[in-house]
Amino acid sequence: MKRSEINEIMKNGLNFIEKEMKFLLPPFAKWSPDDWHQKGEESVEIIDQQLGWDITDFGSENFSEVGLLLFTIRNGSFEELKKINGKIYAEKAMIVQEGQITPIHFHYQKMEDIINRGGGELVIQLWNSTVDECLDLDSDVIVSVDSVKNKVKAGGTITLKPGESVCLPQRLYHKFWGKKGTGTVFVGEVSRVNDDYVDNHFYEKVGRFAEIEEDVEPLHLLYGDYSNYYKCK
Ligand SMILES: [Fe+2]
């Protein structure tokens, strides 16, 4: 992806989340690259816990068809998971466009509640996984939709309207997109600790992080950019 495209997606995303959805992001969402040059040790948690912007086309080079905008608001770490009183939770904000696919994946340790916070409708397709990490094409999937058990055929879908949520347990394959004709979806995620470097298993090989062509300066940094701008690591 070109940086100019990422900047545009970020600017529009910030506008959608804060102005249209009235959900305000923390201050570091708007720090500039220059701001990041000035930050010291006090801000290290943002880097260590992979907080902030994440815009990816999953290597598709077609963001509007296969892609996702995420902003990690809070997170723990795998180290914290080992402690009896550790920070073991995470929260994200995401934007899913109509028809824009997040490819089939599951998480090894992260259980996640996916929440439709507003806008259009979110379609989620589900499969159980087999022990060798294939799609189980036979068994029904049981998921809790707003604390009510739902049974879905293998590869079947559920649709979340604004306000609705689903709890996705570990190793449950899922793929999602915005339902055509309903508008852009503002999605929330409340989960166990998130680690995008080790915890995601995609059914088909994808590039989890976009390759970036630096044609202009970043508007705000993606979390993959921190190592180039933050001096304390
Ligand atoms: Fe997921």
Strand-helix topology:
Elements: H1 3-20, H2 33-38, H3 44-48, E1 52-56, E2 68-74, H4 78-82, E3 89-96, E4 102-107, E5 112-119, E6 122-129, E7 135-136, E8 141-145, E9 148-152, E10 157-160, E11 165-168, E12 172-178, E13 185-192, E14 200-202, H5 226-229
Antiparallel strand pairs: 1-2, 2-3, 3-13, 4-12, 4-14, 5-11, 5-13, 6-7, 6-10, 6-12, 8-9, 8-11
The structure holds fe (ii) ion.
Residues 105, 107, 112, 174 line the site of fe (ii) ion.
Write a concise synopsis of the structure shown:
This protein is α+β, with helices and mostly antiparallel strands and 233 residues long.
Assigned CATH class: Mainly Beta
Bound molecules: fe (ii) ion
Shape: globular
Can you summarize the main beta sheet? 8 strands, antiparallel
Q: Order of strands side by side in the largest beta sheet?
A: 1-2-3-13-5-11-8-9
Helix-strand string: HHHEEHEEEEEEEEEEEEH
Give unreliable regions as ranges: none
CATH architecture: Sandwich
- Integer count of domains: 1
Would you report the number of β strands?
Answer: 14
What is the third-level CATH name, the topology? Jelly Rolls
This entry's quaternary arrangement is: single chain
Work out the helix count.
5
For the record, give the distance between the C-alpha atoms at the N and C termini, rounded to a whole number. 26 Å
Strand content: 25-35%
Task: Give an overview of the whole structure.
The structure is a single chain. This protein is α+β, with helices and mostly antiparallel strands. The chain has one domain: Jelly Rolls (Sandwich), CATH 2.60.120.10. The protein has helices spanning 3-20, 33-38, 44-48, 78-82, 226-229, and strands spanning 52-56, 68-74, 89-96, 102-107, 112-119, 122-129, 135-136, 141-145, 148-152, 157-160, 165-168, 172-178, 185-192, 200-202. It has an eight-stranded antiparallel β-sheet, covered by helices on one side. Strands 4, 6, 7, 10, 12 and 14 form a six-stranded antiparallel β-sheet that branches. The mean pLDDT is 96. It binds fe (ii) ion (FE2). Residues 105, 107, 112, 174 line the site of fe (ii) ion.
